[in-house]
Design goal:
- The chain has about 250 residues and is an alpha+beta fold.
- It folds into two domains: about 120 residues, no CATH class; about 120 residues, 2-Layer Sandwich (Alpha-Beta Plaits), CATH 3.30.70.
- The protein contains six helices and 13 strands.
- The strands form two sheets. An eight-stranded mixed beta sheet has the order 10-9-8-11-12-7-6-13. Strands 4-3-2-1-5 form a five-stranded antiparallel beta sheet.
- Helix 5 crosses helix 6.
- The N and C termini lie close together (about 10 Å).
Length: about 250
């Protein structure tokens, strides 16, 4: 089964996130490429203008890197098979014993404290043109939420995506609100232009709470599911390109 993850770099000066590369796995080999061919918002070209330098393990921005094993630079970010408690780790991530390295990378997001790289899910586009993805709400710790916020946000709750056109940090920013109008945070910046385009083109989106983890760090507080129906023909060339950069087509 083909699997894909977006490789994300965080600019620690601005706290903005960029989709600098994509990691694919076709069941036999892993492929990593930078998003150097894209001129879209928050890709590697824009990251380079804001201080990004290629990862030491992947120094050539134009090369397609291929390996039969998960690249060590990424594999070191997730639990080793050799751990005595490996099965318990998989269970804690909600994964079965036959989970592969891409599954673990998806669930852990490959995060290391103090490191600017992480991984996010692409928009999975199915043959009937419906798409879906999952992500964690960004910026929750900046919203001055009540201490008991988790009692007001439950799995299964519907949330609302609202474009914030006057946002000085990001003109494509999309905030996430409860149905009562309480702002919880934002759509991750790497999806923002695409989601904003979908909303502006009157495409219906379904944003649903998957789970909450108030005991963890803010970046893990609320995971949501985003679903919708996509008609690329109705979009401008720029918006279409932005979406295609994030899409993994599923048979």
């Amino acid at each position: 089964m083909f699997k894909s993850l977006l490789v994300i770099w965080k600019d620690t000066k601005s706290n903005l996130y960029y989709h600098v590369g994509t990691l694919n796995y076709d069941g036999e080999k892993y492929i990593f490429v930078y998003t150097i061919q894209s001129n879209s918002h928050r890709k590697v070209k824009e990251a380079l203008q804001n201080g990004y330098r290629p990862h030491p393990a992947f120094p050539d921005l134009h090369k397609e890197y291929v390996s039969n094993k998960l690249f060590l630079a990424f594999d070191r970010r997730i639990p080793s098979h050799d751990r005595v408690d490996y099965d318990k780790v998989l269970k804690s991530l909600g994964l079965s014993k036959d989970a592969d390295r891409m599954d673990i990378l998806r669930e852990t997001r490959g995060m290391i404290s103090g490191d600017p790289y992480s991984f996010e899910e692409p928009l999975r586009l199915f043959h009937d043109n419906h798409f879906e993805t999952n992500f964690y709400i960004n910026g929750m710790r900046h919203q001055n939420l009540e201490e008991n916020w988790s009692t007001m946000v439950k799995p299964g709750d519907t949330l609302i995506a609202v474009p914030e056109k006057n946002n000085n940090a990001d003109p494509y920013a999309v905030r996430i609100e409860t149905v009562s109008g309480k702002c919880l945070g934002y759509i991750p910046g790497i999806y923002a232009q695409a989601v904003s385009a979908l909303i502006n083109n009157k495409m219906r989106l379904q944003l649903t709470v998957l789970n909450t983890q108030p005991e963890k760090a803010p970046q893990w507080w609320v995971r949501v599911s985003l679903k919708g129906h996509l008609n690329l023909k109705t979009l401008t060339n720029n918006n279409r390109q932005e979406l295609e950069d994030l899409i993994q087509k599923v048979a």
